[in-house]
Design a protein that fits this description.
It is built from four helices and five strands; from the N terminus they run βααβββαβα. It is of the alpha+beta class and 145 residues long. It starts with a strand and ends in a 16-residue tail after the last helix. Its EC number is 2.3.1.-.
């Protein structure tokens, strides 16, 4: 079932996010709970999850960003898209992305920008198949850790 995350989803999301990066930063439960509360209280932050038999198998986070350009319509940024390795290629991640798009449209966003950490051709094809265009924008990242 695709839905927005609830307070009780934190542990399942943390387990899933452990698969996101091979060198994930260590987190303390206390710190994660504090950040989780901040996310849940912010109406512009959305974490979309796909739950199967009580287990979070796919998730992405999205933030709605107010903008004074583009007719003062906001845009959405999607990050941390991940599907459990044993549930990939079954449509669970695509369902999360469709729900994120629905939320962005509901918030009158003019576009969604998805940030991908992988440059693997299969991952790029997956995002393009999901409606994202990699030639429309260029993103640059600067690590602050």
């Amino acid at each position: 079932m695709v839905r927005e995350a609830r307070r009780t989803d934190l542990n399942g999301i943390l387990l899933l996010y452990a698969q996101l990066h091979s060198c994930a930063q260590p987190c303390t439960v206390e710190n994660a709970e504090t950040v989780w509360e901040q996310i849940l209280k912010n109406p512009d932050c959305h974490v979309v999850v796909n739950e199967v038999y009580g287990r979070i198998v796919s998730a992405c986070s999205m933030v709605i960003v107010p903008d004074i350009a583009r007719g003062q319509r906001p845009y959405a940024l999607v990050e941390n898209m991940v599907t459990d390795a044993s549930f990939r290629r079954q449509g669970f991640g695509s369902a999360c992305l469709r729900e994120a798009k629905r939320i962005a449209i509901q918030n009158n966003c003019y576009q969604i920008v998805l940030m991908a950490g992988s440059k693997e051709p299969g991952v790029m094809h997956y995002y393009e198949k999901s409606g994202y265009c990699r030639s429309e924008k260029t993103a640059f990242a600067q690590s602050l850790i």
